[in-house]
């Protein structure tokens, strides 16, 4: 079986149900530089997908397009059966407006490499601001949800602290709680431990593993932590130069990488 | 009703142009003074002798936070009574501008001097340069180029404040416009032209300064 | 010397009134224009830029005189106080818009992105996330600008408004005590400016809660 046949087989297997995320021939260029090249990718509900690849290969761009932070130059992205960047008017595809984006976007949450907590709000406000003002929950409801999430990430005692007073690991865990409290169907993690001191990486990965273990959340994890990817991912995608070079279950990708580029990438990693 | 009278506008233009010379002269005289006063105040502020640095700071704060208009009145009307030195209106105006903007420039100098790495001072000490030599050959030549755009901005700002000199009888552009206006009972054209002339000179100048700033930032 | 004070302070009300009203108008214009200059629509940006360049590029005193002497030619005859507030406010607004604009631009892009990821509307992003942070950066610059405005109010004495500077000139004519009058005036303005500085510092502390 060739690589492509194999991944095709894998895909049909996983897609007894409708995929929750579907990239169709998605491309992205910055000026003359094409950083994503007609990528097709389906993700099943509840699936945990780890995205690995060398620096500058387009991993961040891939997830940012799903978060609506970057507009694809070509192709379509669907979330839960609904077009993300386009809508259908009289049978024709037209670019989506802000209202449409807002409706589809509520199914997606994201955690950033640089945390991006709101520095002018304490932890509780950081986590409740969106539930109150976007979901329209009452403050009491929002705080209850927030407490629950902050307990989950181990920060129930930091409700009144401001981000500047927290360690990087704590900040990132608040950021995770802030995204989770919106109850998205798909969570995106873009190298969430890369900005952390090595001794703080563990606490953040532990929290993500716990969330993954609960099962129903669909996750897309861009990461350089290969052990972590092996542990949480159902599927690992190796991207190089804006293309999916190889994908498969962790044991296959890490154990028996087929593509020479994957092998080169992984061996470079082991040496480090 | 034709509001704007071109004929009148063209007739008064030469007088306004002539007055522009006074405006420009006052700007440069004031700025020259400001450059010197600013440096003195900046050095005074850095002085290790505490009373001197406090005094400089006090002067800077006081002049900066009081109106130029009153300062001009003070210099022109009160100073001669207090000291016996009487200045011409133009001299008083230039001195007022120079003092006022000197306090702003002192802050600019300070920023420039503070940006010099400690190592430069240490190297100068290690080479046993005299203090004068350190300042004139090492520190200021490095401190001043980066602050030239900011100084340019203050030059433009000062230029736009020269109309205040009309209040102490300097016949610059605004005063000329006022005289014309009261003579012909038409204020629209002269004041509009004066405003336009200020814009015409200061806008390109500020674009130039912005360019210079970009160039310096690129280096 | 101090027996001159009561007569001088008769102008204090007008000076304070002009400072307060001028800064209110100025703040509103500064925010509207600062935001307009960041607009997606180029005509909006263009109009805002024109306003800013005209008012920053010509002189405050010329603007004041123009509104006082030239505006009536268009049939618009405003009371002196209104002219003062309008000229000061529009001038303040033009300079202030640059403060607003640059402070907004100084907020890291990641803040907007996080707000998008949480599905805030564009208005909520601005109002709840960006402006509160930009505000902290703006305060010191607005403090300086406010002092410039206070200083600028002295110019209204030249269009017959009876502010501090006007009372000073009047008193000088009747008493001839030039040195004392102008010294007192400078000190009064200095105290007013100091008061502004203190208030801005207090505001800054208030806005900086939780941030080190
Ligand atoms: N806004 C942008 N404008 C121009 N080029 C961009 C932009 N964003 C990303 N790029 C380029 O696109 C390419 C892919 O970037 P991307 O951030 O997606 O890579 P990545 O795989 O996430 O890399 P890393 O592991 O370093 O995070 C890079 O060459 C990058 O320089
Ligand atoms: Mg990346």
Write the layout of secondary structure elements.
The complex is a heterotrimer of chains A (272), B (219) and C (212).
Chain A: H1 3-14, E1 21-30, E2 33-43, E3 48-52, H2 59-66, E4 74-79, E5 82-83, E6 86-89, E7 92-95, H3 98-105, E8 108-111, H4 123-135, H5 139-152, H6 168-180, E9 186-190, H7 198-214, E10 218-222, H8 226-232, E11 235-240, E12 243-248, H9 250-255, H10 260-271
Chain B: H1 6-46, H2 50-64, H3 68-83, H4 89-114, H5 118-126, H6 131-161, H7 173-184, H8 188-218
Chain C: H1 5-9, H2 12-36, H3 42-57, H4 60-70, H5 80-105, H6 109-117, H7 122-153, H8 164-175, H9 178-207
Adenosine-5'-triphosphate (ATP) binds at residues 30, 35, 53, 55-61, 191 of chain A.
In short:
The complex is a heterotrimer of chains A (272), B (219) and C (212). With 272 residues, chain A is α/β, with parallel strands linked by helices. Helix content of chain A is 40%, strand content 25%.
Description of the structure:
The complex is a heterotrimer of chains A (272), B (219) and C (212). By secondary structure, chain A is an alpha/beta fold. In chain A, 40% of the residues lie in helices and 25% in strands. Chain A is globular, with a radius of gyration of 19 Å. The two termini of chain A are 32 Å apart. By secondary structure, chain B is mainly α. In chain B, 83% of the residues lie in helices and 0% in strands. Chain B is flat, with a radius of gyration of 21 Å. Chain C is mainly alpha-helical and 212 residues long. Chain C has a single domain (2-207), classed as MetI-like (MetI-like fold). In chain C, helix 2 packs antiparallel against helix 7 (122-153), helix 3 packs across helix 5 and helix 7 packs antiparallel against helix 9. Chain C is flat. Chains in contact: A-C, B-C. Chains B and C meet through helix 3, helix 7 and helix 8 of B and helix 3, helix 4, helix 7, helix 8 and helix 9 of C. The complex binds adenosine-5'-triphosphate (ATP) and magnesium ion. Residues 30, 35, 53, 55-61, 191 of chain A line the site of adenosine-5'-triphosphate (ATP). The site of magnesium ion (MG) has 4 residues of chain A, from helix 2.
């Amino acid at each position: 079986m060739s690589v492509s046949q194999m991944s095709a087989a894998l895909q049909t297997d996983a897609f007894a149900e409708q995929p929750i995320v579907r990239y169709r021939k998605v491309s992205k260029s910055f000026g003359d530089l094409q950083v994503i090249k007609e990528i097709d990718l389906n993700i099943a509900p509840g699936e945990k997908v780890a995205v690995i690849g060398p620096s500058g290969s387009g991993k961040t761009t891939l997830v940012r397009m799903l978060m609506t932070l970057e507009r694809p130059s070509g192709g379509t992205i669907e979330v839960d059966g609904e077009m993300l960047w386009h809508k259908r008017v009289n049978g024709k595809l037209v670019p989506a407006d802000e209202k449409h984006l807002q409706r589809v976007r509520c199914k997606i949450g994201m955690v950033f490499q640089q945390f991006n907590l709101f520095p002018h709000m304490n932890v509780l406000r950081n986590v409740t601001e969106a539930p109150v003002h976007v979901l329209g929950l009452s403050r009491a409801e929002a705080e209850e949800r927030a407490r629950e999430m902050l307990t989950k990430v181990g920060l129930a005692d930091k409700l009144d602290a401001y981000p500047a007073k927290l360690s990087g690991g704590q900040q990132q865990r608040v950021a995770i709680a802030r995204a989770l409290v919106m109850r998205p169907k798909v969570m995106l993690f873009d190298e969430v431990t890369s900005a952390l001191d090595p001794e703080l990486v563990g606490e953040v990965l532990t929290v993500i593993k716990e969330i993954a273990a609960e099962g129903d959340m669909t996750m897309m994890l861009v990461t350089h932590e290969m052990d972590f990817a092996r542990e949480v991912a159902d599927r690992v995608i190796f991207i190089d130069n804006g293309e999916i070079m190889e994908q498969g279950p962790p044991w296959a990708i890490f154990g028996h990488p087929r593509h020479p580029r994957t092998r080169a990438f992984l061996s470079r990693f082991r040496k480090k | 009703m034709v509001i704007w009278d071109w004929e009148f506008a063209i007739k008064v233009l030469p007088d306004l142009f002539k007055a522009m010379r006074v405006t420009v002269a006052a700007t440069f005289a004031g700025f020259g003074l400001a450059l010197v006063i600013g440096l003195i105040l900046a050095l005074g502020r850095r002085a290790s002798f505490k009373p001197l640095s406090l005094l400089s700071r006090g002067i800077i704060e006081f002049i900066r936070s009081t109106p130029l208009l009153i300062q001009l009145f003070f210099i022109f009307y009160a100073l001669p009574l207090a000291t016996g030195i009487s200045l011409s209106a133009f001299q008083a105006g230039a001195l007022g501008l120079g003092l006022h903007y000197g306090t702003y420039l002192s802050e600019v100098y300070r920023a420039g001097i503070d940006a010099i790495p400690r190592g430069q001072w240490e190297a100068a000490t290690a080479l046993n340069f005299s203090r004068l030599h350190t300042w004139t050959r090492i520190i200021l030549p490095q401190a001043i180029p980066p602050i030239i755009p900011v100084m340019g901005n203050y030059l433009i700002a000062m230029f736009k404040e020269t109309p205040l000199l009309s209040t102490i009888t300097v016949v610059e552009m605004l005063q000329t416009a006022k005289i014309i206006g009261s003579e012909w009972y038409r204020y629209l054209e002269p004041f509009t032209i004066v405003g336009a002339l200020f814009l015409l000179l200061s806008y390109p100048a500020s674009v130039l300064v912005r360019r210079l700033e970009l160039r310096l930032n690129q280096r | 010397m101090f027996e001159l004070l009561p007569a001088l302070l008769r102008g204090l009300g007008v000076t304070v009134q002009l400072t307060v009203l001028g800064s209110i108008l100025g703040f509103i214009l500064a925010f509207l224009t600062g935001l307009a200059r960041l607009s997606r629509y180029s005509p909006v940006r263009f109009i805002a830029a024109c306003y800013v360049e005209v008012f920053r590029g010509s002189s405050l005193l010329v603007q004041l005189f123009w509104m006082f002497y030239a505006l009536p030619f268009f049939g618009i005859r405003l009371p002196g106080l209104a002219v003062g507030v309008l000229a000061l406010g529009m001038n303040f607004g033009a300079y202030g818009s640059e403060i607003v604009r640059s402070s907004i631009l100084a907020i890291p892009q990641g803040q907007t992105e996080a707000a998008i990821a949480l599905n805030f509307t564009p208005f909520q992003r601005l109002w709840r996330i960006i402006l509160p942070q930009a505000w902290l950066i703006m305060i010191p610059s607005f403090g300086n600008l406010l002092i410039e405005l206070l200083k600028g109010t002295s110019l209204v004495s030249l269009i017959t408004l009876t502010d501090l500077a006007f009372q000073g000139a009047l008193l000088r004519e009747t008493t001839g005590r030039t040195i004392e009058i102008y010294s007192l005036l400078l000190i009064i303005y200095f105290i007013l400016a100091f008061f502004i500085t203190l208030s801005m510092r207090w505001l800054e502390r208030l806005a900086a809660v939780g941030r080190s």
